[in-house]
Amino acid sequence: MITNLIQTSKTWETPGGVHPPENKSQSMQLPLADWTIPDELVFPVSQHLGAPAEPIVNVGDKVLAGQKIAEAMGAMSVPVHASTSGIITAIEDRLLPHSSGMTGLCIVLKSDGEHKTIHYQTCGNYRLQTPKELINKIRDAGIAGMGGAGFPTAIKLSPNSSTIIDTLIINGTECEPYITADDRIMQDFAEDIIQGSALLGFILGTPKRIIIGIEDNKPDAIKSLRTELATLTSTSSDFTNIEIATFPTKYPSGGEKQLIQIITGKEVASGTIPSSLGIVVQNVGTAMTAYRAVCFGEPLTWRVTTVVGEALETQRNHKVLLGTPVEHLLQESGFNQKYSSRLIMGGPMMGFALPDANVSVVKTTNCIIAPSKSEMPAPPPAQACIRCGLCAEACPASLLPQQLYWYARSEDHEKLQNHNLFDCIECGACSYVCPSTIPLVQYYRAAKGTIREKELEKTRSDHSRQRFEFRKERMEQAEKEKEAKRVARKQAAEQAKKLAAEKKASALLSMGSDSIESVKKAGPAIGGNSIESGAIESTIESDPVAAAMARVQAKQQDPAAQEAKLKRSVDSTQSRVEKLLQRVNEAEGDQKERLRSQLKQAELRLQDAQKKLADFASSIETESAKTVSIETHTTVTETTETESKPKKPLKAAPPKVIDAAAAAIERAKEKSEALAKMSPEEKLKSQLSGLQTRVEKARDKVKQAEVDALAGKVNEHIDALRLGLEKMEAKLVTTQQAINELESN
Q: What digits encode the pLDDT tens for the residues 247-258?
């Protein structure tokens, strides 16, 4: 009868669903209880879907109610605020309110009992602000979905720019047994919910329809909302697109996809989200909290929670400060431990048993159930599936729970995904109707977790493979470039050698035959054939690499240098022998034997080095004797020939062979002398010019590395190139400042 009087829009039937005992009247006999402040509050940094928040307070800090104590880390994250004033006593791992019983990072606050708050920034007409500004306020207030999912509200209010939202649904269904938190706030905060619905609609671009959906088992809530909506509509046109839709009670009509189908008749396809249909769904508690955050500056620090169960003396709804321990709530409600079978956070269908009462109330905590042993007895042992098909009839997502059960047991993940396992909302309707009491939802949850872990592992493996392939490609490219440079250097050297030979031949031809004979005679004086030596000198002059190689070769052929090198080798080996001898005397056991072996090897190397030095000294003496003999014989021969032959007119001396190494040394000396003659200002300007050239080259390298990165070619040295450029630019600025100071003086 009530349904006919209050229903205002057409609704559709959804598949499946069950009708468990509601058990909602117990907690609605008393009005909403105000919060009490516990001695200690615990704030998990992860109270929502997405990345955990990051603590921004330290142990010993004094905080006020409403002060931010943990900052959001990324878009899929929301901050955490202190719900009362006090001192931070710990930032540590504590037990989390989660079915896994795991621990996580929490901020512990010791209350001072005074509940001092920060100054809240109120605003007048929010319509004078942009939707983006309002979304930022909602994000900063730490608001996540209050219906139990905990999805960051700011993300839902920021759909794709190409998506037009024409329907906003405010979910006041609250279909699960025992829970009455939303019913209570719809009765006590009706104006805030209507105002919050209009606010969310404004942020989403003023949808054509804003529908508050409520099951028909909440007549008082419907009456309060209708009355408030009529009052607001009479004073402003901002609320004319808001309507209230009621529909028959059935579990789980409060599911997002189920509620959309009930109110609009549209079905959200598998693997898609409601915004793809132009629809956004928000909870009534979320709408109320968003309104208070935007218009009154209040962050999310409290929520309404149902505390119910036959093991309690008092069953009612409470305004609860976030972070309040569940044990504190139970004590206030007269909890009797010996009558309780277990503690449940959430509803009996989708909630989970708490491992301990020391966990705290978080943003998604809508209910705490402390049932007696007769109220919720332990389930009987699971029996074999009898293939009755009741689970398929009850499934609101039109899945095949029986098949999913078999595939989950056999770990056939491919078939599980083919049968749309991830469309399961884990409502528990299949488990509720199963005559064999098989915990079907537990199998589905475990299978989902395994599949997600395998997908994550596959993603990591793919990333690792891609990095390996990119590295291999870079190495191959580097090797190709290196080979190309080697070929280019070889060709350049051959070309230089050819040009040098041609140049020398041309010079000799221009000199005439007599000059050629003179150059040939001068050949032995420079250590070889004159034409070859000239070609070598020409090549040295035209090729810096050849010049460097020639200098190294000349140094290696220098007897003094070779002798010094051999002496250093003898001294070094002698020193090692002495050290090893000392260590052998100090060592014991096996270590002594090893050191003796090393000592013997060192002594052999010393003998070899001494022999090489002695052989070299002997060869030098022999070579010196030969040189003296040759010089004496040459002098006598030249004297005899001079006396016996008539004198010929003198010819032009052969051209002097230029030593490239000596020329380079001379140029370095000249540069050093020129630098010494410069004034400090001239030196700085010279240095500035060189720095400018190096900075330009460094910038070109960084730009090229960034272009390669955009093209997919990862440069491992890009960070080093950027750091080097920054240092050179800083040095360039310092040099310019020094020049400016000198000029000003």
A: 999 999 999 999
470 lies in the same domain as 342: no
Query: In this structure, are 505 and 563 located in the same domain?
Result: no
Asked if pLDDT for residue 701 goes beyond 70, the answer is yes
Instruction: Reduce the DSSP state of residue 659 to 3 states and report it.
Output: coil
Smallest CA-to-CA distance from 288 within 379, 192, 357 is with 192
- Return the structure tokens found at 460: 């990591």
222-256 per-position pLDDT tens digit = 999 999 999 999 999 899 999 999 999 999 999 99
| Tokens, residue 730 | 């800083």
Residue among 301, 307, 319 nearest 354 (CA): 307
Are 306 and 414 in a shared domain?
no
Asked whether residue 473 is domain-assigned, the answer is: yes
Does any domain span residue 178?
A: yes
8 A C-beta contact, residue 323 and residue 81: no
Read off the pLDDT of residues 291-319 as tens digits, 9 standing for 90 and up: 999 999 999 999 999 999 999 999 999 99
In a domain, 148, yes or no: yes
The beta-strand segments (E) located in 273-413 are 279-283, 302-308, 316-321, 344-345, 352-353, 367-369
Domain around 396: 388-511
Inter-axis angle of helices 559-586 and 589-644, to 10 degrees?
160
Q: Which pair of tokens denotes residue 340?
A: 């309780």
Cis peptide preceding 252, ω within 30 of 0: yes
Q: What tens digit of pLDDT does each residue of 550-596 get?
A: 555 555 556 777 778 888 888 888 888 888 887 777 777 777 777 87
pLDDT score at 316:
97
Give the C-alpha distances (Å, rounded to integers) separating 330 from 107, 341, 349, 368.
22, 14, 21, 9
For residue 606, count other CB atoms closer than 10 A to its CB. 18
Residue 233 in any domain: the answer is yes
Q: Give the pLDDT of residue 554.
A: 57
Query: From residue 320, how far is each of 30, 36, 111, 188, 409 by CA, in Å?
Result: 16, 7, 15, 15, 41
User: How many separate domains does the chain show?
Assistant: 4
Same domain, 483 and 602: no
> Tokens in use for 158?
């920021």
Does 621 share its domain with 686? Answer: no
> How do residues 407-442 score in pLDDT, each as one tens digit?
999 999 999 999 999 999 999 999 999 999 999 999
Q: How many CB atoms lie within 10 A of CB 211?
A: 24
